[in-house]
Amino acid sequence: MNLQRILWIAVFAIIMMESSGQKTHKSVLLQHDKKIDAIIQQMTLEEKVEMLHGKTMFASAGVERLGIADVKYADGPFGIREELQPHSWAPLGLTTDKATFFPTGSALAATWSPELAYEYGTGMAREARMRGKDMILGPAINIQRIPTGGRTYEYLSEDPFLSSRLSVGYTKGVQENEAAVCLKHYALNNQENNRGTVNVIIGERAMREIYLPPFRAAVEEADAFGVMAAYNKVNDRWCSENDILQNKILRDEWGFAGMIISDWGGTHSTVDAVTYGLNVEMPDKKYLGQALLDSVKAGKVSEEIINLRVREILRVRMEIKPVPEEKANKEITSQPAQQKIAYNVASKSIVLLKNNGILPIDISKKPVIAVIGANATQIMATGGLGAGVKTLYEVTPLEGLKNKIGDKAEIVFAQGYVPVVFTWGRKSPEQLEKEAREKEIKTKELTKEAMDVASKADLVLFIGGNNRSVETEGSDRKDIKLPSGQDELIQKIAEVNKNIVTVLTSGAPNDLNVVNSISKALLISWFNGTEGGNALADVLLGNISPSGRLPFTLPVKLEDSPAYALGNYPQGNKNADVFANLVSETDSIGVTAEKKSEALNRDPNTANYSEESLVGYRWFDTKKLPVMYPFGYGLTYTDFNYSALKTDSEKYGKNDIIRVSFELKNTGKMAADEVVQVYIHRINPSVEWPEKELKAFSRETLNPGESKTLTLEIPVKNLQYWNETKHAWDDDLCNIELQVGASAGDIKFKKEVALK
Ligand code: BGC
After folding, report:
1. Selection from 397, 401, 403 nearest residue 533 by Cα
2. pLDDT at 18
3. Average pLDDT of the segment spanning 619-624
């Protein structure tokens, strides 16, 4: 480590200590403290320590003697996970634990609807309670930093403001319905490769402005009761023993009064973990069991610290009433009310990227529709590594189409390609070779069948994309190409039928160069939950208008995205071939060859966030790089007109609220939702800023011909930056341009106002 970095980290730590104590929020959990004093007095040291580690895979202990129930956890974030054996990942085999599979994070984010996020939280909480759970391990709110990130599908967005609004909605929905959230993964868990060893090196400003806001908002605005410490290190300290993140920022600054649990197996020490803020080691007791007891007895940890950690757990325990044993798991978890929420979210999440008029599908003449692609029948509730949902049902795209079309058209299905299937363990070279040969033969057969089916159809619905084996916890994708040779297949199909509508059921960005040019219409339909297929069919048939908007940028090519362009990701020699390509690819945007060769030699366990705040569209817009489709983008089956932009003043003080008003009119023939977005651009700032930043948005439903006057509010306080010299939020009172539009790439009008 170089001297400058050591100094920086030391200064940061000192300043953080000084700035502690000014909490921005007062939690309802604090009301239990008096009662807790009395409980703690009655507890033995052994009983206290017993609460600080896993009792089973998904529970930590209460104190039976004092009538304090265990805390029961459930994954999260997109459905209540099935019941597992107490001490292994093997299923318990209940018949009642079939839950609703809710659309995953990026789908929820594509609704751009905090109200739907609230509904979603409500549904998750109801099902958690039916299963006797206290705390849901979600929402997952890390920023989507790299397009290849293995958990992009679980996370919400590349943008901190959108992520924050949704994490607040989700948290309120859960906590107003008798369960607690556990915000994960705190913090900076933005990659899956090496997630258990990687050290994120990040400056204060990017951390405060980009990566922490969704956590801060859920704590300050929704009083989140639980947080999960991430696997990685941040600035040289493991997250689960990171004093700055856990004690100074989360507790002292934001006023978090609840409990922090480790990610599973993510605890690394005894004294440091408990001192620097961790409450529960999950799911084991390697560090916070006997070792902790010994440390207290040896005087290495004071009993006050233990009392404090116990208190933080008891606050949550007292606020969240345990579900009586005899009431849990009595009925099937998934119920119609929650399935309806899953449908509502799915139906508002589907993003229409391109349409030359071929959609909605006209079935008046009973067409032959060739549905081609393994994703048409692919289940997305499970697959890959990590939490899945043992769903009561999942309507696939093909089933949805059949449900909604009935006999009004002829549907012919062809699988088209061999989907990726996640398997455990390493395979021998012989085995791999054999599988490759078999796959080649199968692919030829499937291609032939697909072309045959396509040639006889009026319309081809190509349903491709990733699946849960491709996008998975524990590893990132190598690239963003459509898997299983889908680009090659669609090119073949186009030789025999040009009427192609492409639907990608992916949770993360794909390279769209081929499908976008070949398809007459293109949609993203996500890992869209129990009702995903029905929602998709309703959109394709025009029963409803598409109304999702991209929660992330779709780059022209992966190498344009910031962490790749700067050689910050992937890290280390292992990826030398990827870097070799980057050297030639990124010269045009001023990334120096030295930077890249430095990256080449870097430790694979160091993730340098030198792109700072330039994440997602902030990077593309600032660097003036073309994108495939911009952040916030999505078409409908109607047209909207924006007019008469006004602000309530020309000048605003630092405590004022900017009110931006304009008229929105549905000028087309169909009811639809528009997501209006307000970005701000700084004109004469005193510090550096990205080209533009999202600061307000609203989803509006308008009937044909209807117009509305909308007013969106931006508190000037929300335009502050993190001053790295003062280690505090600060104003940059300059002239700004308000940019109102339908996406980051479609600004309808701009207006300059002054901040003073
Ligand atoms: C994941 C968490 C999850 C936990 C328990 C970990 O591997 O990172 O998100 O909640 O396992 O399943």
Report:
1. 397
2. 42
3. 98
Position 2 in a domain: no
| Contact between 744 and 630 (Cβ < 8 Å) | yes
Atom 6 (ligand 1) nearest CA = 264
Which position among 70, 97, 134, 263 bears the catalytic label?
263
Q: Is the CB of 208 under 6 A from ligand 1?
A: no
| 410 and 278 within one domain | no
- The DSSP result for 489-506, as a single string, is HHHHHHHH---EEEEE--
- The number of distinct structural domains making up the chain is 4
Residues 621 and 691 in one domain: no
Q: Residues 66, 125, 112, CA angle at the centre, nearest 5°?
A: 145
User: For residue 493, what is the domain's CATH number?
Assistant: 3.40.50.1700
**259 and 155 housed in the same domain:** yes
Q: How confident is the model at residue 579 (pLDDT cuts 50, 70, 90)?
A: very low
Mean predicted lDDT score pLDDT of the chain: 94
pLDDT digits (tens, 9 = 90+) for 182-223: 999 999 999 999 999 999 999 999 999 999 999 999 999 999
263 is catalytic: yes
- Residue 737 pairs in a beta bridge with 681, 752
287-317 pLDDT, tens digit each: 999 999 999 999 999 999 999 999 999 999 9
Percent of the chain with pLDDT strictly greater than 90: 91
pLDDT recorded at residue 601: 65
| Residue 719 CB contacts under 8 Å (≥ 6 apart), including other chains | 680, 695, 731, 732, 736, 755
Residue where one domain finishes, among candidates 604, 629, 654: 629
Q: Judge whether 7 lies within some domain.
A: no
Asked whether residue 58 falls in the same domain as residue 80, the answer is: yes
Domain containing residue 526 = 350-552
pLDDT (tens digit, 9 = 90+) per residue, 414-453?
Answer: 999 999 998 888 889 999 999 999 999 999 999 999 999 9
pLDDT at 9 over 70: no
Q: Are residues 387 and 501 in the same domain?
A: yes
Residue 16 in any domain: the answer is no
Question: Is the beta carbon of 387 within 6 A of some atom in ligand 1?
Answer: yes
Look at strands 180-181 and 135-137 and give their pairing.
parallel
In a shared domain, residues 130 and 37: yes
Q: How far apart are CA 717 and CA 611, in angstroms?
A: 25
Q: Which ligand 1 atom sits closest to the C-alpha of 185?
A: 9
Residues 243 and 153 in one domain: yes
Is residue 607 one of the residues assigned to a domain? yes
Q: How far is the CA of 699 from the centre of ligand 1 (A)?
A: 32
Interatomic CA distance for residues 334 and 296, integer angstroms: 45
Helix or strand run (H / E) with residue 202:
none
Looking at residue 583, its pLDDT comes to 43
Statement to judge: residues 656 and 615 lie in one domain: no
Is there a cis peptide before residue 187, judged by omega within 30 degrees of 0?
A: yes
- Say which amino acid occupies 187: A
Helix axes 114-130, 336-349, angle to 10 degrees: 150
Question: Which of ligand 1's atoms lies nearest the C-alpha of 140?
Answer: 9
- Does residue 358 sit in helix, strand or coil? coil
What pLDDT, in 10s, does the model give residues 649-672? 999 999 999 999 999 999 999 999
Q: Is 137 in the pocket of ligand 1 (CB under 6 A)?
A: yes
> Looking at the predicted structure, is the pLDDT value of residue 1 above 60?
no
> Which token pair is 565?
């362009």
- Determine the Cα angle at 450 with ends 446 and 455, to 5°: 150
Question: What distance in Å separates the CA atoms of residue 185 and residue 169, rounded to the nearest whole number?
Answer: 18
